[in-house]
Structure formats: C-alpha cells, structure tokens
Design goal:
Layout (H helix, E strand, L loop, with lengths): L2 H28 L3 H29 L9 H13 L1 H15 L14 H21 L3 H8 L6 H28 L4 H47 L1 H14 L4 H12 L2 H13 L10 H20 L1 H4 L3 H26 L3 H31 L1
Helix pairs in contact: 1-2, 1-3, 2-5, 3-4, 4-5, 5-9, 7-8, 7-12, 7-14, 7-15, 8-9, 8-11, 8-12, 9-10, 12-14, 14-15
C-alpha cells in the first residue's frame, strides 16, 4: 500500500474519531442524568485520544496534520441532540459504533494497541445504554443482560406448540396434495410416513445447527473477551465501571464493585461475559442434541395427527378422517397459542383452522392439476 493510500486512510480515521468525540461532548451536555453524562464525556475523551493517535500518524507521514471540522452528518446529529436530547440520537450512534467496531482489526497501525478493543467496548456499552433508554433497567432486563435465565419455560412451550403446528400443517398439505393427484391409498400412506420422517429429521437437523452455531459463536466471543482481558485489563476494568454506572451506580460505588470483581481473574471474565456480551457461560444456550431431539419429537407429534387416520381407515374415508383429525388439531393448537398471547381462544383457533385449510386446499388443487396432467 502506498503512502498516499495510508494518508487517505489516516485522514478518514481522524475524521471518524473527531466526529464521534464532538457528538459525545454534546450528548454529555444534553444528558439530564449525571452518571450517563459522565459516560458520554469519557467516551469523548477516548475518541479524542484516538484522534490524536491518527493525527500523529499523519504528521509522521505528511509533516503536518490538517484541521478537521465535523462532517455534515455529525452536525445534523448534533443539532438533533440539542433539539431533542441525547436519547433521540442514541440508537443511530449505537448502530454506527456497531458498524465500526471492527474498523481497526485489519489496520496494521492498530496492532498491539487498545484501539480495537476500545471500539468494540464502545459498541457494547452503547448497546446497553440504548436498551436502557427504550426499556429501562427492570428485572427482566437485568436477567437478559446476565444471560438467559428464566427464558426457557414459556419460550420452550411456545416453541413446542409451533413445532407441532409445523408438523401438522406440512404433513396434512402433503397428504392432500398426493390424494388430489388420485394416487392409491398405499401411496398416500407411504408419502405421509416418508414426509413425516423427512420433516422431523429436517427440523431436528436445523435446530441442532442453529443451537450448535450459537454455542460456537458464544465460545469465540468468550475467547475474544479472555484475550482482551489479558491484553488490556485496565481498559476492561474501566469498561465495567462504565457499565455499572449506566445501571445507576455512583462512580465510586461502580469502581468499588469493579475492583472486587477484578480481584479474581475467573470472576472478572465471568462477569464481563455476562455484563458485556449477555452470555451465560454456564450453559451457552443449552444442548444442541437436546434441542434437536425436542424438535424431532414435537414435529412428529404434530405430524401424527393427520397421518394416524391413514393407518386405521381405508379408502376415501381415510382422507376425510385425516382432514377431520387435522381440523381438530389445528383448532386446538390455535387456541393453545393464546396461552402465550392472551388473545381469544375461539378466534385464534378458527384463524389457525382457516390457515391450515387454505394450505391443504392449495396443495390439493396442485395435486389434482398434476394428476390430470399425468393422466393425459
């Protein structure tokens, strides 16, 4: 890379840091809560230090560094901040920090410096502040930040209901499509069994991949946090102080808590993982195999509702029995969903029945057209 390319990149970095520092200063001035204003001021100081880093780089390469004014976009954000307050622009600033959090990872000048870690730290801290401004720091929010405690019961039941619904609707649609093509009863039954097993296996594999991928991502994030803790413990401690301040602790109290946490390395990593990343290191989202097994079972249970009548009833009556069994199942599932939504069981059940009937009607019609085409 040429000196001209390096100089262009240095100036872009200087512009970004100058803009961020100016905006954080104004956000601090307009913030009504003293502890949050102090956080913005400290973020501004960090960005100003970054700006000085790139200014020195420019001076080393070009002999002098230009005077940098804030960009038009930042001036607009500053105007909005002064007009409507810091919270009005916080989501935008948070999104920008998230986008830029890896901007220094590939820049060789930032190697062996705290710039990459601090940029990621700023993104996480602003995400905390943004969530706080929207929802407040209630008990549920604390639990979410500390991990996923308490998220299993209702969510797992809702997932089971929806998984059973997937099995029912997909198998019913498959049976109706094949019967619409006027295939034999044996073919319809074989298709239902094959479709049930294929769908259950597909659901299980998809769930396994989803959970396992999440676990691996969490593990990489924890390893990255461990590396940052080893490379820059002072910066990580300051970040934890800011997080506790954002939760409403005073500066001295937040620092005292952070000091106690950092007195034991394992405790420091565990706390940072929970507070910064929102990850519970004890379970990492649960077992992939358990999730896969549960998905397989609930899909199978749903699929058995339209498939079982084919085993006990012969001829055209089997299709009628399958449709009737499915109608009852769809209504029950629709009503069961209201346990979580709080709506009308009758209305939700009828809506689910209508949706399932529409899906079965579409596949039956497609099967009939396909059968006519094959028959010449």
């Amino acid at each position: 890379m040429s000196d001209a390319d390096d100089l262009k990149r240095y100036r872009a970095n200087l512009q970004d840091e100058t803009d961020s520092a100016a905006l954080y200063r104004v956000m601090a001035d307009m913030e009504t809560k003293a502890e949050i204003a102090e956080i913005y001021r400290r973020l501004a100081k960090a960005e100003e230090a970054h700006a000085r880093f790139w200014r020195r780089r420019i001076e080393q390469l070009a002999g002098s560094a230009p005077q940098v004014a804030t960009s038009w976009r930042t001036r607009v954000l500053i105007w909005l901040t002064r007009r409507f307050g810091a919270n009005a622009v916080l989501p935008t600033v948070m999104s920008q920090e998230v986008t830029n959090q890896a901007m220094y990872d590939s820049q060789r000048e930032a190697d062996h410096t705290t710039l990459p870690a601090q940029e990621r730290s700023h993104a996480r801290l602003l995400a905390h502040l943004s969530s706080r401004s929207r929802h407040g720091w209630n008990g549920s929010r604390y639990a979410q930040l500390e991990g996923r405690h308490g998220a299993g019961g209702g969510n797992a039941l809702r997932a089971a209901v929806l998984g059973a619904n997937d099995g029912l609707v997909s198998t019913l649609s498959l049976i109706m499509g094949v019967s619409g093509a006027a295939f034999s009863a044996q073919t319809v039954l074989a298709t239902a069994v094959a479709g049930t097993l294929a769908g259950a296996c597909s659901m299980a594999m998809g769930e396994w991949i989803s959970v396992q991928s999440s676990r691996e991502l969490y593990q990489r994030q924890i390893e990255a946090e461990r590396d940052e803790l080893e490379a820059a413990p002072a910066e990580e401690k300051e970040e934890l102080v800011l997080i506790y301040q954002s939760k409403g602790f005073g500066a001295e109290e937040a620092r005292a808590i952070a000091e106690r946490v950092f007195s034991e390395p394992r405790s420091a990593l565990d706390t940072l993982v929970r507070e910064e990343l929102g990850i519970n290191p004890d379970d990492l989202g649960g077992s992939a195999w358990t999730a896969a097994g549960a998905s397989f079972v609930v899909f199978l249970v749903g699929a058995m509702i339209p498939a079982l009548p084919l085993l006990v009833v012969d001829g055209p009556q089997a299709i009628v029995a399958s449709a009737a069994s499915s109608a009852v199942g769809l209504f029950v599932i629709g009503a069961a969903i209201t346990v979580f939504t709080g709506g009308s069981g009758l209305r939700s059940g009828l809506r689910q029945l209508a949706i399932g009937a529409a899906a079965a009607g579409v596949t039956f019609g497609a099967g009939r057209l396909f059968g006519v085409a094959l028959g010449g």
